[in-house]
Structure formats: structure tokens, C-alpha cells
UniProtKB/TrEMBL annotation:
<dbReference type="InterPro" id="IPR035681">
    <property type="entry name" value="ComA-like_MBL"/>
</dbReference>
<dbReference type="Pfam" id="PF00753">
    <property type="entry name" value="Lactamase_B"/>
</dbReference>
<dbReference type="InterPro" id="IPR001279">
    <property type="entry name" value="Metallo-B-lactamas"/>
</dbReference>
<protein>
    <submittedName>
        <fullName>MBL fold metallo-hydrolase</fullName>
    </submittedName>
</protein>
<feature type="domain" description="Metallo-beta-lactamase">
    <location>
        <begin position="51"/>
        <end position="245"/>
    </location>
</feature>
<dbReference type="InterPro" id="IPR052159">
    <property type="entry name" value="Competence_DNA_uptake"/>
</dbReference>
Amino acid sequence: MKILKSYFKIVSLLLIILFLFTSCHNSKSIENSLNIQNDNIIRISYIDVGQGDSELIQVNGKNLLIDAGTNESTNKVISYLDKQNVKKLDYVVATHPHEDHIGGMSDVIKKYDIGQFYAPKKLTNTKIFENMINALKSKNLKINVARAGIELDLGKDVKCEMLAPNNNNYEDLNNYSAVIKVTYKNSKFLFTGDAEKLSEKEILSKSYDLSSDVLKVGHHGSTSSSSKDFLDKIAPRMAIISCGKNNDYGHPHKETLNEFEKRKIQVYRTDVDGTILLISDGTKISKM
């Protein structure tokens, strides 16, 4: 009986060791395969910041952050960046100085090593904007002017260019928005901040190549953006809308959603889907 018990103990121990070894081996294999993939992919995160905007682009070991959400969502943004093992933000772009786009920017600036910072040439007298400027000063960072024609270096196989703003004087702050197109091999992503139809019209007049697989929808899906002519030129297969649940503005507007449906554009929304992660190998774009 004692021999039988000893036998079962030995067998159980061997099974546990075998299980642990297999688990470790499998997890290492998965980890290694992911590391290999990460060298040849672009990751685009549309961070759920409620009624605001924040996107993280990761490619070739470089990080680009576009906007930093609302003041209220600051911890969400920083927590997400930390989970992605972000230590340095090679580029940070504040598309325009509205609170729902730069609310968390001062804390982001303070926490991370930042290569270059971009913002349109527009000052506001809000406390949030002042906090952002003070944070930049505290780290001796200057503001590079965000405007059409600027290119950011995100490494091999990537073109990252600003298509707007195309003017220095707008009545509506939204039209100062930096509009950015990121092309990784054959995959194309367009980020439009809160650019409205006036800015869209200016972009169209410049004869840029706007064709994109994925559109980060302007102004949270408002009818003030996403003009038909603009969508015609972009011809996206997928649209991402960043907005808050039951927000006071009724975003996204039904007219915008109907237009996407009519064009058979796949729509994802942060108020419905939470943070949205897209990965591309340069040919195929997958939602994770």
C-alpha cells in the first residue's frame, strides 16, 4: 500500500513538472513569435477616453501619441501607455487645444521621455492649455508647429505626414486640428482630430492622396465633419469613432452613421467597443 502511494506521488509530481515545463515552453514560444511579429507590424490603439480623443501608433520600436484625452481620463491614458511598455514617446501631437484632446497632456509630458512635441499655432487662455505649456517648459521642450507638409520619422516602410492645418486663422478652433496620415507598406490610416468641413475642403483643394483603409472620424462623428466629398476621396473600409457613452452632444450623429452604412464602411466606436486595437503587417489589418 505504501509503495502504491509513493508511486502515485511520484507520478503526480512528474505530471506537475511536465505541465509547468510545457506551459513555460508554450508561453515562451508565443512570446517569441509575438516579438518576431512586432518587428514587422504596426499597432494602432484608439484609446477609450470617453468624450475625447487619444491614439497611440507603435511601429519600428517608435511611439507616436496623438492627443491625450480629457483631464478626467488622464489615468486611463497613462495606464494604457504603461501596459504597452511605453518608456519614450518619440512624437506627441496635440491636434488642437480643446480640453477633450489635451486634458491629460500635462501629465503625459511630465511622466514620459518625449522626443518632439507638435501643436498648431494657436493659443488659448484655458487652465488646461496653461498646464500643458508649463509642463513643456519644465522639461525644456519646445512646440514644433503642426501644419500641412510636416513629416515625422517613424522608421522603415512608414510615411507619416500632416495634411492640415492649411491656414493660420480659423474662427472655429476645431479647424486648427492637425490631420495626419500614416502609411505602413500598403496599410493606410488617417487621423483627423476635430477637423470640420472647412478644413476638409482645404485638404481636398491640395490634391493630397487621401486614400485610407481606416479613418479616425473627425469631431467624434459629428455632422460638422465627414463631408461626402471627403469620404469619397478617402474611401475607407473601416471608421473609428472616439466618443463617450450618452454624451451631451449626441455624438456620433445619425446622419454620419447613415452615410457610413450607405458606403458599407465597418464602424467601431469607443463608447461601444472600448479601446480599439488594430494591427497590420502592411497588407492585412486586423482588429484585436
